[in-house]
Amino acid sequence: MKKLMATMMAMVMTAAALTGCGGTTEGTGNGDVPVIGISQYGQHASLDNCREGFLQGLEESGLVEGVDYKIDYQNAGFDDNINIQIAQNFSANHVALMCAIATPSATACFAAAEDKNIPVVFTAITDPVQAKLDSGNITGTSDKLPIEAQLQLIRRMQPDAKTIGILYTTSEPNSVSAVAEYQAKAGDHGFTIEALGVTQQSEVVQAADTLIAKNVDCFTNLTDNNVVGVLPSILEKTNDANIPVYGSEIEQVKIGCVASAGIEYVALGRQTGAMAAKILKGEAKAEEMPYETVTEYEVYVNSDAMKAMNLQAEVADAIDVTAE
Length: 324
Known about the structure:
This protein is an alpha/beta fold. The protein has helices spanning 2-18, 45-60, 80-92, 103-113, 147-157, 173-186, 204-213, 225-228, 231-240, 250-254, 265-280, 303-308; strands at 35-40, 70-75, 97-101, 120-125, 138-142, 163-169, 192-198, 218-220, 245-246, 259-262, 292-293, 298-301, 319-320. Strands 2-1-3-4-5-11 form a six-stranded parallel β-sheet, sandwiched between helices. It has a four-stranded parallel β-sheet with strand order 7-6-8-9, sandwiched between helices. It has a three-stranded mixed β-sheet with strand order 10-12-13. Strand 1, helix 2 and strand 2 (70-75) form a beta-alpha-beta unit. Helix 2 crosses helix 11 (265-280), helix 3 runs parallel beside helix 4 (103-113) and helix 7 (204-213) runs parallel beside helix 9 (231-240). The relative contact order is 0.15.
């Protein structure tokens, strides 16, 4: 009987150890190394930079991959069904923590993790409140756009412009929120907003044609994943029409947008990784950590793209991406 009781006690203690940090490594073949499931909604430079920064943040916090955690990275390819499947698989495998990159991934992960008590840490979400991701076992970082600064930049670059075109996904709360803010503030700078919504990525390029036909003076880009995912195709059309496009961060400027007032996404990811490290170390709980908003931004310009659009404005303290 004593041997039986000892065996049962050992089993209980082992089970308790495996459920630390809100999850196990069931099915991973890595003993008691916690698994972080990274769900990235799709692949473009901004989201890739978030993931790179997240891994840097974990490392800078003193965690060692293979010892303190293992990464299970999944990319949904902008497919909502695959996105949900990824989150459900993470939940079924009892990962220790989910890192969700972009709003659709965060929404899917939060829904899948809620009944398993698995913490979720998000990044690249403009408006967590609008997305209903500001309470529960979830936290992360917001990439809220510096819209006032962007409007000032556009006015400086195009003194005579009247209409700004915006493409956005109607189902992305971030984009809906950003469009509303643009519409509220544009009049203060002498602009009107021509916003056109799409429901999926396959509609974006045709929607760009529609805005071009409306004779908008420029486009301003959001951090809308469906739009950013096909930005090179949009730029081909706007370049042919001689319509400048303003990005929302440095990577968009690098590929041909004329300028941007935006944040740096590797830094955003690093901040997210540091938050995740606190949770994995047991120093904090996700539900007790308010999400953090990055407020510092830089102004980036692409002098080659500006020259092609005959834009000659001098922008103080701007970083020219063509000089990097």
